[in-house]
Recover the amino acids of this structure.
């Protein structure tokens, strides 16, 4: 794993607060050093309990979670952070099985990074998620407090809240929320995978988009086998089929 000192090539996104929970002291020190070199504020924790206590005291902009912690399962931490906050979440783990990656994304993580990692890639992933949390989708409305109504649903962009017709509420992750917003601002148009993820250089083998689409369908009660809202256009992308009204 690289340990060389980094020279930041571009400024950090504001003065963002990042929490890291990692019980390996050497890895924790490396990540904290990397993020601080790029002008992020960073606090590290060695247990899930200490992280969650700090999250309740001061919500961060992003949390990096190691899965193998001494006191609790990392997936449970991701789930609790997602239920309590709208911050970005990255899983950093040595578990390389595709099932772990899919479970992490389905639990609510915005990204999953394998150990050993390349420092510049970690910083790039952090920046990408923070941009998605901060900015409305490209071409979107300047006012992020608008709400969209569609097919019996109401979506509040500023809080990532999705409200059903019966008043029940579902909270989306940052990645899910930004993806839904892109759909809502371009209904009845085929959107390529790169546009939905807000990235221009995704690998053709990157399945994270499919996992997020599956999660979004489930929260919208959209049958994955016969979807009525989010349809797959093979070889082209995805199509959101609904009339959308902005209020």
């Amino acid at each position: 794993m690289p340990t060389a000192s980094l020279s930041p090539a571009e400024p950090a996104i504001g003065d963002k607060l990042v929490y890291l929970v990692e019980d390996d002291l050497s890895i924790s020190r490396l990540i904290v050093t990397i993020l601080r070199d790029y002008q992020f504020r960073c606090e590290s924790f060695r247990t899930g309990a200490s992280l969650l206590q700090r999250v309740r005291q001061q919500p961060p902009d992003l949390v990096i979670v190691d899965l193998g912690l001494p006191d609790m399962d990392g997936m449970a931490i991701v789930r609790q952070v997602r239920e309590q906050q709208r911050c970005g979440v990255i899983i950093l783990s040595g578990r390389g099985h595709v099932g772990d990656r899919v479970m992490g994304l389905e639990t609510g993580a915005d990204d999953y990074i394998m150990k050993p990692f390349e420092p510049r890639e970690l910083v790039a992933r952090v920046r990408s998620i923070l941009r998605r949390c901060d900015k409305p989708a490209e071409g979107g409305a300047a006012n992020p407090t608008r709400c969209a109504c569609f097919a019996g649903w109401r979506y509040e962009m500023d809080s990532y809240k999705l409200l059903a017709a019966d008043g029940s509420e579902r909270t989306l992750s940052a990645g899910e929320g930004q993806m839904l917003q892109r759909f809502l601002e371009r209904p009845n148009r085929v959107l390529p995978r790169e546009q939905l993820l807000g990235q221009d250089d995704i690998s053709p083998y990157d399945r994270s988009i499919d996992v997020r689409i599956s999660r979004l369908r489930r929260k919208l009660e959209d049958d994955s086998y016969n979807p009525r809202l989010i349809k797959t256009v093979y070889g082209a992308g995805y199509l959101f089929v609904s009339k959308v009204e902005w209020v």
Notes: DSSP finds eight helices and 13 strands in the chain.
